[in-house]
Amino acid sequence: MWEARFIYLLIVPTIAYFFIFAYLPFAGLQIAFKDFQIFKGMWESPWVGWKNFEDVFQSAKLPQVTINTITISLYRLLFGFPVPILFALLLNEVRVMWFKRTIQTVTYFPHFLSWVVFSGIVFNLLGPLGIINLLLKNLGFEPINFLTMPEYFRSILVVTGIIKEFGWGAIIYLAALSGLDPQQYEAAKIDGAGKLRQIWHVTLPGIRPMIVLMLILSLGGILDAGFDQVFMMYNGAVMGVGDIIDTYVYRLGLMEAQYEMATVFGLLKGIIGFTLIVTANAIIRRMGEKSLW
Amino acid sequence: MVTDPSNNHAPIDDDLRVTLAGTGHLDRNPLWAQTIIYLILIGLGLVTLLPMVNVLAVSLSEGYAITQNPLMLLPHDFTVEAYKYIFGTEVLLKSFGITVYVTVFGTFLNLAFTITGAYGLSKTHIPGYKFLMWLIVVPMLFGAGLIPYYLLLKNLHLLNTLWVLIIPGLVAPFNLILMRNFFWNIPESLEESARLDGASELQVLWKLIIPLSKPVIATVGLFYAVGHWNDFFSGLFFISDNSKWPLQVVMRSIIIDQNMMNMGSGPAQSGDVTRIVVSQQNIKAATIIFAIVPILLVYPFLQKYFVKGIMLGSVKG
């Protein structure tokens, strides 16, 4: 211990940070079981047992925001998950380096923009005064306010989310692709495999560990439907299909000061999210794939 | 001997195949497939690029011209009035200043904590190493949620201060692990010889490790800096005093709110009422460009180091 004292000295600030900002908040979870009175503080507030949980389970918002969150996440998984993989496979076929680099430079860029900025770009396209509506108007059609239409809202979330992140998401697959052994392709060719069969029998199995790893992470994050994006894009008209757990917890807790219920929501979300990622990891490990831990 | 003519071709074909494979020709897709691949990629590139080019064109056009040329990729009736307008709005400039400060100073603190922590934790032989690593990894999997976090920051009197934009995200576990993995790859013998020369732990870190780790420090520094620049969350949740809002939060109110009366004087108008020089669309577009330009300026570095960081991170979680 003593020889390592200087090492510990270097670690102390970081550990102190984690203790305060990652572990102290857990003490605040007691609010979930209390009638929180702000002037008394959370330690002095009276215990109420499971009452706050009952309130949450009786609230009509619980099924609504849960269904919205999971639906949006599953759409993202279904439509968004394969896009970076396909993009990486296509890019991998390009032999003209300047072309490949240009496409990468352009498609990676939106990843570095915040959702505030990117939503501004989306509004410029789809908003009431956006390009598409100006076009409709100029062609003599009625304008459509896409962002206030419940039937379009989730699709807009998913599609704009894909456009912002597909390029960036392809990087790890490209890295995995560049690590594949060229001899395997040679062997496949000698066996008479065409391009598509090579992709099926060599490329995809080669990047499968990475695909599986990303899938675990996505499954673990299924209750995160993207606060920043939804918060920027939603509005009263699409609340019914667009309000997700995180946006609701924000309004409930910080706008309406319903601390107890918001804490219960957050706690339930944390527990389920943790269970999901642990389960996904265990299943994948049992399947013999490379897992997170 | 009668030879099957079709058999006759086989050896030649095989020879040809080997020759072509040697020059890489068989790797190529047929022309039609190659064309489709290139077209799809160009399409994907345009889908990402054109909406941004349009915003740029809108920001530089006169208000009335937008309605007539919605699809423009080049400005119509070029004007910089929208930029003059936003550079005259104090709220936006102030928030820009706040965000620059938070990005520069915050990133500096992030790096100071992450480097020391990662260096310490690269020493796997210290007692309690496993426990300390667990302490850092567990928060990646499970958190207490927004409200307990909010109440903690409230009790620490961080709410409504600029510190709340800096301190709560001081060390990101992912970045710490990334850096620790990089430190692992520095040969132990270098450190040993420095220690034999009488260097203290801090000197080893400062004079040996840090100079050798410039690439990973650049990567992690950029991760943090972009995080600060784009941080919307902390300002929205923890700062209710709008004179302390960072750029992204102010931008949100400009982009979402139709009513910009609170932004100071209204947009400049030319004498001709039908010919609006600066419309809300212009101002929103100019604001968007205003926030994109700094990212664009550092983009070459971002691309270089971020890709490196992702690769490093994906090799060893």
UniProtKB/TrEMBL annotation, chain B:
Keyword vocabulary terms for this entry: Cell membrane, Membrane, Transmembrane, Transmembrane helix, Transport
List membrane-spanning regions: 36-60, 98-119, 131-151, 163-183, 204-226, 283-302
Topology versus the membrane, per the UniProt entry?
Answer: Multi-pass membrane protein
Query: Where is it mainly found?
Result: membrane
KW Nucleotidyltransferase (keyword) present: no
The record ties this protein, via InterPro entries, to: MetI-like, MetI-like_sf
- Biological processes annotated in GO: transmembrane transport
Q: Does the keyword Transmembrane apply?
A: yes
Annotated ABC transmembrane type-1 domain ranges read: 96-301
Instruction: Spell out the subcellular localization from the entry.
Output: Cell membrane
Among PROSITE patterns, the record links this protein to:
ABC_TM1 (PS50928)
Pfam families with a match to the protein in the record:
BPD_transp_1
Task: Name the protein family.
Answer: Belongs to the binding-protein-dependent transport system permease family.
Q: What is this protein called?
A: Carbohydrate ABC transporter permease
Q: What organism does the UniProt record list as the source?
A: Cohnella rhizosphaerae
Which lineage ranks, top first, belong to the organism behind this chain? Bacteria, Bacillati, Bacillota, Bacilli, Bacillales
